[in-house]
Amino acid sequence: MAQSPAHGSDHHDHHAAGHHDPQDLKLLGFWIFLVTDVIMFATLFATFIVLRGNTDGSVTGAELLEMNGIIISTFLLLTSSFTSGVAVLAMHQHKIKQMIIWLVITGLLGAGFLYLEVNEFLHLIHEGATLQTSAYWSAFFTLVGTHGVHVTVGLFWMIAIIIQIVRRGLTDDTKGKVTVFSLYWHFLDAVWIFLLSIVYLMEVM
Amino acid sequence: MSKKPRSLVRAAFSAVTLVMTMLLLSGCGNYMVLDPKGPIAEKQLDLIIITVILCSIIIVPVLIITFIIVWRYRATNKKADYKPEWAHSNLLETIWWGIPIVIIIVLAVITVRYTHELEPAKALASDKEEVTVQVVSLNWKWLFLYPEEGIATVNTLTIPEDRPVRFEITADSPMNSFWIPELGGQIYAMSGMSMALHLQADEPGTYFGTAANFTGEHFENMNFQVNATSDAEYEQWIQEAKSSPNTITDESYEEMSKPTEKEEPTLYSSFPEGIYERIVTKYMHDGAELHQHGSASADETDAAADTANANSEEDSSAHKGH
Amino acid sequence: MLDNIKEFASEFFVTGDPLIYGADVSIVLATLGIVFVLTYFKKWGWLWRDWLTTVDHKKIGIMYILAAIVMLFRGGVDAVMMRTQLAFPDLNFLEADHYNQIFTTHGVVMIFFMAMPLMFGLFNIVVPLQIGARDVAFPFLNSLSFWLFFAGAMLFNLSFVIGGSPDAGWLAYPPLSGTQFNPGVGQNFYIWGIQISGIGSLASGINFIVTILKMRAPGMTMMKMPMFTWSVFAASTTIIFAFPILTITMLLLFLDRFFGAHFFTLDGGGNPMMYINLIWMWGHPEVYIVVLPAFGVFSETVATFARKRLFGYASMVFAMVIISIISFFTWAHHFFTMGSGANVNAFFAVTTMIIAIPTGVKIFNWLFTMYKGRITFPTPMMWTIAFIPAFVVGGMTGVMLSVAPADFQFHNSYFLIAHFHQVLIGGVVFGYFAGLYYWWPKMFGFKLNEYLGKWAFWLWNIGFYVCFMPQYLVGLDGMTRRISVFSDPDWQGLNVASTIGAYIMGLAFLFQVAQIGYSIFRHEKDTTGDIWDARTLEFSIPSPAPEYNFAVIPQVHSRDEWWEEKERRARGEKPWQLGPIEPIHMPKNSAIGPIMGAFWFIAGFGLVFHWLWMAIPGLLGVFVCMFARSFSAHKAEYYIPVEEIERTEAKLRGGAV
Predict the structure, then answer these.
(1) Where are stretches of biased composition, namely Basic and acidic residues (chain A) (predicted)?
(2) Can you give the pTM of this predicted structure?
(3) Taking Cα atoms as reference points, which of C133, C353, C326, C365 lies closest to residue C234?
(4) What is the CATH number of domain A67-205?
């Protein structure tokens, strides 16, 4: 924040005062949105930590959670974060085709992650752990599920961006969208690392 | 400006002054919180007075300065100085950052000391024996259990004067708060937890007790009389309660815990041993084995679900001294 | 079949209370009246094109303010009904359950649907003009924020006639607000009304931060920003840290109620205390969110009407930043009596007291802005001056409440009620009124009638003290909040006095309505754009401002740039070196805002009644709108040509720039 006045006046020294680079605004706006999302996840994490012992005598996470699937999920999501980064690199080199290919790979990895998550949830429900079972499971499903919903929204968003790029090519506008999307995708990756440590590793250890 | 606003001003001032004077005159010391009848309420009043005095050190000058400045520097007063560029003074700003900081430090030190001293779970120092009363908030009445005497009451409380009373408070209802203003401050009544509150009445009398935290439709009917009596009268009252035809059983408690609009004060000659503990633990995981009667409150539909785990509640309420 | 419909209708519509039938009839009549007028004068197109789909911050601001005034009326009627019941508890004017609904909706409406939109209205109207910008950073998002607020507000208010109002208090503590004790739909209306409008508030917070950081006129560094803009920045920053907590809290309560989850239930290991912590982690910052902009307004009015620079600018900024930070560390003072232990209580008591320091400093700075000034007393200034004693006394009772062991005697009593009404009315409402009077000419191009305004002012102030001073006393006498009857005869007199005060405030509100009505027809026109001889950039342009705000963005050199500019001109120096007029880039109107708001409303209504057949299409509609926007956003701009700007400016300024 401290440097922004300086930045602002640099920008304004051109006689085109009042014209603001919309991509610049969007990027800052998106960073602030991510701050709010961080707080939402932080609240959910806090909730989970408060309620983690409250299994109400029913089945516990340690009994049901299976790490094998989670390790594969983690691998898929981390890789997809990498591929989305590669897509942005390709974008900066104006290699549209490559960029789209990398985005599609990112999407497929994300879809794989979601597939595993849905499977995990179905398995847990089958074993008798649902949102209604106990406070622990309410917090578990809500926290993990919120992350999953974020990934799902990200997938649809990415499809929309790819369609726009195919139609309109790479403009400042579509470039901005890819940049912001990749920011979002990295963010989900970071959230997942916390999820993995707090929800899974600490429970199973 | 026109004349009219000025006459309005005058009318307004006189109206406000009149009302204020009436209010102050109407209540010299009759207010429960300002008229304490027990050591806790007394200390709390001391603290309130200290706070008011400390705050007044700033508030009173500010109010006076406000009036003077607004009056003196009105635009129509051409004799007053006008310095439109004067907008900064290190000295002045240091003063009004400094003075409040000092006052708040003083108040903070006092508050921290009193917070520890008046910790509600702390037993009162007294050479007399403590009386224990267990309090349960129900929809919409208070149940008082006297474990030492084996008697119980609804919506009426009798305690011996000049003897410390230990209240153990819980709820079989939404969260409530138990408050006897003349004896001391309130504490929440929460399900699955037993909160301790120590109070004492210094003189015999009838005090007002109330529920302070909204629990639903007929919450307004949850007030009760507190009778502080001499030891002899207290013994007599216990005998009276013991001869009451009413008793509480596990079954009748289940009935009693269902919502009712308004309950008259009632005495009960007996109650089942350990019922208070069962009410507390029925919302706690550890209480699962204690809780075999299935005496879930009527509000609960799922009998299997009423053995709630409350590890975290326990953590935070452990120091409340169950 | 008919029986089924009848049974459904008696469940669906709130029945049995003549007051509610009366409201039903007046709502239907008012709606028909509006529809008739719009149709008769062929105004539907105008309404849609010029207002509902607008992305112009000035018009969005006006819509926020209109909605807030309507909500002030609704919340005020609730208040007057409560006071009527309490003055004569034996008459049973309101049944207990009805009373419980009314105090709940009063609180929710006043905070979420009155204070917040009034605040956003002022943000919208003032901030871009004050920093020399042509709009907010994201004009479409701004329109969307308004429509989310509107959808949430309408959904919440609908509970009055359909399904039943919530009745668990304005913060809906579980387990009372859970399905175990509250199986009806009222609490669902509460959740979705707040959730939908809360998302809008969050978006507005982001929008104004970016606007302020990125769109200031050249030369306006952060430390040259007008104080109101600083207050908006502090409040918006607080919003983005606090509102996500509310969003999650409402989500969890919804999961409990809809899916039978166990976050806050008594059974299943739920923890109701966690809700109380979470809601106040949002709730305490929230009161500073609404009061900081009021502080901003006072900083503007006091400098303008004392005709003097704001005293201690740097201190003021620092104080505001400190307040918004510490506001996140005081939440537990709302439940000292929960038994968290002496150390926790002592910590939160001290953090709470610390907030009094910067607040006190601000008061001193306002006072010394007036010191050696030339004070005039038009209505905005009167509200500013009235604020000082009201807030100082309210602040003192706040410090009294912060002393944890003493709070055990104040908590949940009328002492607390009196305190927060005194700071919320004396601080927030007085501040927003001052702002509304101050910027009204800028919004509409004419001044509000001062005579009626002064009547309203004095009635408000008298009513305010007559209403709330007795409440302190009755609180000290043991009267607790949220009761509709009481047995203690000592309380009767004080309650009657308080009710008289409430009625006087109600009368004052009617004076304000009359003032607005009268001023629309007979008023002093604001021909210069600078009717108060003010100091900041918004007064350098005509009133009402043209849609592009500034034909040419000025170069800023000092804090009170417009005042300095006037001084320079008076000294005969060269006026602003404004560059040549260039084509102005503007956002196009968008129908997606109101349509998406409507889909949110549909989704919310479906979720309230557990009608998935309605909720799912509603949510799908929301997503379709988002995609439609994503695909069309790049086409949503246009340029105003130079000739048109020159024509407009010539007309507005009578030929002289």
Answers:
(1) 8-21
(2) 0.92
(3) C326
(4) 1.20.120.80
